[in-house]
Specification:
By secondary structure, the protein is an all-beta fold. The chain has five domains: 16-98, Immunoglobulin-like (Sandwich); 108-182, Sandwich (Immunoglobulin-like), CATH 2.60.40.10; 194-270, Immunoglobulin-like; 278-356, Immunoglobulins (Immunoglobulin-like, Sandwich), CATH 2.60.40.10; 360-457, no CATH class. The protein is built from no helices and 35 strands. The strands form ten sheets. Strands 3, 4, 6, 7 and 8 form a five-stranded antiparallel β-sheet that branches.
Length: 458
């Protein structure tokens, strides 16, 4: 008798999924197992992963019902199910949520400026972390705020500095930190300042525009120059050819800054000194030095003034005024001392001159004079000879016998004569005064040696 044994294939039952840890820490290891109550082998297992967005993909497969997952990361977070199949059927388990614990990562800080009028700033700190309940603490030199967003409603330059955001994962007792440097822009105080100066030996103009301070530095730009000179937004000094410029030319410098809504400006003008150069001379009180002074005041830029003497005496250039100092008695009489004045807006140099000379005697007696009697000697000075405030008389031996130091001679005055007394301690000075518009000089008491001064009007 023969028997045929027929094996019946049992379909797989609905599997159920087990995990060794449904909340693994990032970087750890865990296992998944797909359990079946019934089912004839061979059985194939597939593990499926479903993301938060609903995308489903095969995570692993094989003929064993358990898999090990090493180095868990945050991308493993999601829904998992297992599918069991044999030759008869295929069954899927229910979903099981895997929640990877991680973080916090290095935070990201976003800076959002308020409008310029509000002048505020907001710092937002964000760090990926799970569980998604991180704690944020802001630090400067000390803790300043707790929470993800730090807001400074009125930003000042004192707020410049480093700000750190500390993100904490209290579940894992982990933390991370990010530091940023906050720079507060602020404009310079006041407005730009403009000026003009001479350059290249007083043949060219240099326009200067200054506006110190501020962060970052302001942008300065000269306007109204046309094609006369090339420049860019950062130029604060430009050379400008003076040829063809008017005496009253206006130049404007425009200043702008990131922290200002509107630009500000300054202006400067160039002009020639209104008067002519002036020369005059005077002697120091101790009669050691003769000082020749030349001035040409005013003007923008200032003029350059220098002296040239007949024997090579010179005084280098100075602005507006210059004094040539000569030792008293060494000045060359009858020779001109020339003052030169140069301004960038003028092609030609202006000059003024001083001629130092001795007086000439007139009405000199040609006969012998009795001892003890009076004699009159007249010293004639040319009107353009300077200085006229010191007269010294010498005898035929070259020895000084009388010094008629006195107050400076009044304007429009010509010394006509000096008359000695027999005592030789008095001298009569006769002045001749130009009378313009009536009136004249009155008797002026002398200051030294009993000098008596009288005037004549014409």
């Amino acid at each position: 008798m023969c028997f045929d044994l027929v094996m019946k294939t049992v379909p797989v039952s609905k599997p159920y999924l087990l995990m060794s840890d449904v909340s693994p820490v990032e970087g750890s290891t865990m296992w998944m197992r797909c359990n079946l109550e019934n089912g004839t082998g061979p059985i194939q297992y597939v593990w499926q992963h479903e993301t938060r967005s609903g995308n489903i993909s095969a995570f692993a497969q094989g003929n064993t019902n358990i898999i090990n997952v090493t180095n868990i990361n945050r991308n493993h977070t999601g829904w998992y199910r297992c599918v069991a199949s044999n030759n008869v059927n295929s069954e899927s388990s229910n979903r099981l949520w895997l929640d990877t614990i991680f973080g916090p990562d290095i935070p990201q800080i976003d800076v959002t400026p308020y409008s310029i009028t509000e002048r505020g700033v907001s710092l937002l700190c964000r760090s990926p972390v799970q569980p998604a309940m991180p704690q944020y603490v802001w630090f400067s030199t000390t803790p300043v705020y707790t929470g993800p967003q730090l807001t400074i409603t009125k930003i000042l330059r004192m707020h410049t500095g480093n700000y750190a955001c500390l993100a904490q994962n209290n579940y894992l007792n982990t933390r991370s930190k990010k530091t940023i440097s906050l720079t507060v822009y602020y404009p310079p105080d006041g407005s730009p300042s403009c000026s003009v100066e001479a350059a290249l030996n007083y043949t060219t103009l240099r326009l200067l525009c200054s506006w110190p301070g501020g962060l970052p530095s302001p942008s300065l730009h000269w306007t109204g120059l046309g094609n006369q000179v090339g420049q860019d937004e950062t130029n604060t000094a430009v050379l400008l050819p003076s040829e063809g410029l008017n005496s009253n030319s206006l130049f404007t410098c425009l200043g702008s800054h990131l922290a200002l809504k509107q630009s500000t400006q300054c202006s400067t003008r160039t002009y020639i000194p209104p008067a002519e150069p002036e020369c005059f001379a005077y002697v120091t009180n101790n009669k050691q030095y003769l000082m020749l002074s030349c001035s040409w005041d005013g003007g923008a830029p200032k003029a350059l003034v220098w002296w040239e003497g007949p024997d090579g005496q010179a005084k280098g250039g100075e602005e507006n005024s210059n004094i040539l100092i000569l030792r008293y008695g060494t000045a060359r009489s009858g020779k001109p001392y020339t003052c030169h004045a140069k301004h960038p807006l003028l092609v030609q140099t202006k000059t003024c001159r001083l001629t130092l000379g001795q007086c000439t005697l007139s009405d000199t007696p040609d006969k012998k004079i009795a001892n003890g009697s009076d004699v009159q000697l007249t010293c004639n000075l040319r009107s353009n000879y300077l200085p006229a405030s010191e007269i010294t008389w010498f005898n035929n031996q070259g020895v000084g016998v009388l010094d008629t130091s006195r107050y400076p001679m009044p304007p429009n005055v010509t010394l006509v004569s000096d008359v000695h007394s027999r005592k030789r301690n008095e001298v009569e000075l006769e002045w001749q005064v130009e009378n313009e518009g009536g009136g004249g000089w009155t008797v002026h008491p002398a200051a030294h040696m009993g000098v008596r001064a009288t005037t004549k009007e014409r």
